[in-house]
Amino acid sequence: MAGNLADSITQPINDQLKKITGGSGSSSGSSSGSSSSSAPKKPSIIEFTPEYYAACTIGGMVACGPTHSAVTPLDLVKCRRQVDGHLYKSNMQGWKTILRTQGDSIFTGIGATFIGYSFQGAGKYGFYEFFKKTYSDLVGPKIAHDYKTGVFLAASASAEFLADIALCPWETIKVKTQTTIPPYANSVWDGWQKIVSKEGFGGLYKGLVPLWCRQIPYTMVKFASFENIVERIYIFLGKPKQSYSTLEQTGVSFLGGYIAGIFCAVVSHPADVMVSKINSDKKASESTGQALSRIYKQIGFAGLWNGLPVRIVMIGTLTGFQWLIYDSFKLYVGLPTTGGH
Q: Where is the region Disordered (predicted)?
């Protein structure tokens, strides 16, 4: 499989080189021309094969790890303002304060962010494609078509449930490091060792339930709204997706992703606040439910929306670029973009 996947990923490059050089040049003119023109072009990767799911997994990793890492300075201030709404008056003031503080950095937590969201992106996109096909086959083509949004929601929820198990330890280290001044740990490994030595391995998963509460609705909205938004964009444009260039298709992916990201931010924000609070303020003697109840009494309903405007900008941009990168990768390996079929 690894060899097939490698061939599938590099085949588009070879195809382009052949176009430039006019073919391999080793075959006779008329015979070669006749066979090449009559033979149908085979896709680089066949959909719904192991190679297909592997490519989607790699695409998700490439889309999520770097993009989440790129917004670390914004995420850092957002997390700190969620934990303490009086810490910074604005994002700009927060960044200035961090830059002036010895031992602090606007890129605090970037290592755990990159590792965690690379794993999460791999699982989220790879499993989404797998579950979307599996559930569609399970209910049959008619129901899958008539109730496709339900299939999108079920597939994305299943994918995120599994992806968060891979993300949670790294998210715990990230949030703990970002919300402690000076930072709790000097590196990802330092954070891992400190948490495990103090709280045991389970300490890395103390925020799993709030993480599910944040990420599963987030991903359900992210995928279901994206698929529907992209479909409506192509309906509005008046032509099928295949009639547009790859650049135009990825532009639609970015626009659809940005709009979907705004919805994602609003739906998941209260749980995002609670994830930050739990990872920074949960007592060892408390259950997750007890900690959530205590924290909610402290911050109230209004406190659940601390930092929402910043997160809308962050998640909208993040989601737009993730879909842009993911669909660009799919096109690169010879697959169609997501949605709008």
A: 16-43
**C-alpha closest to that of 206 among 272, 279, 268, 274:** 279
What count of residues does the chain have?
341
90 CB contacts (<8 Å, ≥6 apart)? none
From CA 17, how far away is CA 28, in angstroms rounded?
A: 19
Sorted by where each starts, the structural domains of the chain and their CATH numbers stand as 47-332 (1.50.40.10)
194 with 184: CB under 8 angstroms? yes
Crossing angle of the two packed helices 246-281 and 208-237, in degrees rounded to 10:
160
Name the phi and psi angles at 282, rounded to 5.
-75, 130
Nearest partner of 234 among 255, 261, 252, 208, judged by Cα: 252
**Residue ranges in the chain modelled with pLDDT below 70:** 1-43, 341
Distance CA 258, CA 246 (A): 18
Structure confidence at residue 19 (pLDDT): 47
Distance from C-alpha of 103 to C-alpha of 86, rounded to nearest angstrom: 21
Apex 218 CA angle, 310 and 168, nearest 5: 90
Per-residue model confidence (pLDDT) at position 7:
53
Q: How far is CA 131 from CA 49, 152, 162, 294, in A?
A: 13, 9, 12, 37
Q: How far apart are the first and last CA of the chain?
A: 28
Burial call 34-69: b when 16+ CB within 10 Å, e when fewer: eeeeeeeeeebbeeeeebbbbbbbbbbbbbbbbbbb
DSSP 289-317: HHHHHHHHHHHHHHHTTTTHHHHHHHHHH
Cβ–Cβ under 8 Å, residues 165 and 116: no
Spatial CA neighbour of 95 closest among 117, 120, 126, 73: 73
